[in-house]
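User: Structure tokens for this complex, please. No commentary.
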Amino acid sequence: MALSVASAAEQEGATWPAGERLNCWNCGAEPAPGLFCPACNALQPLPERADYFQILELPRRLVIDPELLQKHYYELHRCLHPDLYQTGPQAARQASLRNTAALNRAYRSLRDPVDRGLYWLTLQGESLGTDNKRVPPDLAAVVFEVQEQLEELRAVRDRNGAVQALVDQIAGARGELLERQNDWLRQLEANFERWDAGGDTTALTRELKAILSALAYLGTLLRDVEKELGA
Amino acid sequence: MERIFGIDLGTTNSLIAYADEDEALRVVPDPETGSPLLPSVVSFVSAHEVIVGARAKEMAAHQPLATVASVKRFMGLGMEHVTAADREQHAFAADGGIVRFQIHDRTYTPPEISAFILKELKRRVAVVLGEEVCKVVITVPAYFNDSQRQATRDAGRLAGLEVMRLVNEPTAASLAYGLHKKNQGLIAVYDLGGGTFDISILKLHEGIFEVLATNGDTRLGGDDMDRRIAGLLLERLPAESRRHPDVISQAVAAAETAKIRLTDAESTVMELRAGSAHVQCPLTRTEFETLVADIVERTVGPCRQALKDASLNSGDLEEVVLVGGSTRMPLVRRRVEELFGRKPHTELNPEEVVALGAAVQASVLSGRDKDTLLLDVVPLSLGIETMGGVMERILERNTTIPVTARQVFTTFVDNQTAVDFHVLQGERELAADNRSLARFKLRGIEPLPAGMPRIEVTFMIDANGILNVTARDERTGRERSIDVKPSYGLTDEEVEHMLEESIDHAEEDVSARLLIEARNDGEGLLHATRKTLANVAPDGDERARIEAAMAQLETAMQGTDYNRIRDLTDELNRVTTPLAQRIMDASIKEALERKRVEDVV
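Assistant:
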């Protein structure tokens, strides 16, 4: 199952980082690609620097078919999960625990486009840094309006005043924010496609940062809105 | 292959189950009564005699302060979490820290009390199957935090069990339902037990059970309803008798009975006797439902949150499963149906389904069931207290486990060689509003200028949902030692110590019991002999022999040599046998003569 998936991924260039792996803990055989020792079939710990694409045995591409991702995730769990090694030797149990933890983290990150984009930035040696604290220019107007409404709502609540009109207004604004969020998510997908097509890295990185900043900003604002509407 | 057993260590009842050779799931019943349920009640009859189960439950009314029911509510908690209502029903040790019950002349932690329940389940298997239980899977509420899980694992260790896995109760229940035979689907498991509430949303895919989100309340359940209803009875009593632990205990028992009756009946009458007072209180189902509606309503928020966390609407769910005794209540069933818009599954006994599911997971771990796989989540976010008392999240709730998070720590002053950090669990912003799990101390840091050392700390939540912390120097790659001080738990050393103590005491306890039994038997015979001697007059020689044997036995009973007491009891028995025989003969003769007279008449 996952072993055949691994060879497919390798054809696309997702090989393990070199010089990271130890000899097999069970039979001492030379390090080899793949999760299991080719000589004795014992489960090996994943190399520490394996990236999320390697762990999920996927080509290093930003556009990911969610169904394929889930398929790999489940198939790998069927080979790696601690339940399968519970009665086995300590080294296999350790490898299983470590590999499964890495698998879960990788899946969580690649499953969500925003998290995937953020992870991609770290692979480029970049991060959002303080960019997400600045209001993206074309969001400024709507952001300030919603923030003002939220503040007013809190103030009216504190005086036990009538809030229904304000709540309706904010609920309306939420609709607009969600629309904006969808716009940015579409831009993110387009950016992913250009990476996969081999575009200019510097320009793509700059664009990716701008998109992710806007989405981070919208995400925080939407959480605030949900919180106030739910209160 | 060594069998692994599944245990549901419940608030109200506990069960032990296994998958037999044909993978059929079986609960091991009480060998004496045949009941599958073991009431989770432990009663300390004396400092040396502990009883567990139905008989202990009966003792609750007689010696409430030496009887612990619903100990699960206290697992992994500290004294500051104990409520006024708890204090009415239990005596606690005065010191802070982990909860300790004060019983007779010593204190017991919740894991120690739970270990008595586990040992009783072990005994069941020994008697019924003639097998020794070593390896087990124990279920816990999905919403249990790290401390509560550790406490459960400690209870297993104290009972001499190897706890192979802690499994979340709703997930276990979904395994028992055989829903894995369905190819795929989204299901909700609503689990309202005696003391805890869980909601879990799962995605099924060809035998894989992936939990998408879980939520709940570890102090919400049928017990709360019992206490509420018991209030109705108590308020009819004179104020001075209302606060007696034994009266409260009886009122709670009467309330529980009424609640169970109202599942089928439209009305019932509760009764309570306290001293000279005797109160009766009629209760209809409608009145009952009005009284407990807010308790049931408290389950709605967690359900909505779980759906939201799973990014689902209630309409997306294909199945809803009910688990836990409290879901027998018509009100709960109606509310769940309303909430999820579909009729819930109730085919399996809601009290047995968790134990059966634990047996399925046991079968998976033993390597027999190769098709089923559980992917569970951590129920609460994990974080570290930062300067200013804010919790910085390092792992979000509903992350699939096992999972790791890494955090780099450094020093604040030159040549600092140790760093402390405080690990929390919960969803609130402020550290103080979340549950403290443990304080850690990183030691052996090289003396360097402030900010230079980089110690990478790995927080791993394992498949049991339990946190493991390791540290290593980023520069040298060397492991660094960490001291752990659990906030509301036992350290490994304390568990070891308790285990050693219980082995030491095991012998002491057995001797004590044998002595008590020998004294009781001796006293019984002495009493009977005295009575006989007062009524019949044996001849001088015989009387002297009997009185000598009595005197010897009386002296021996002052001591602690139970073998000598036994021997002298036998001796007294021997010398009184001819006398007893004559009395017997005489009474038979008398009875026969009387009969003859009656016949004539």
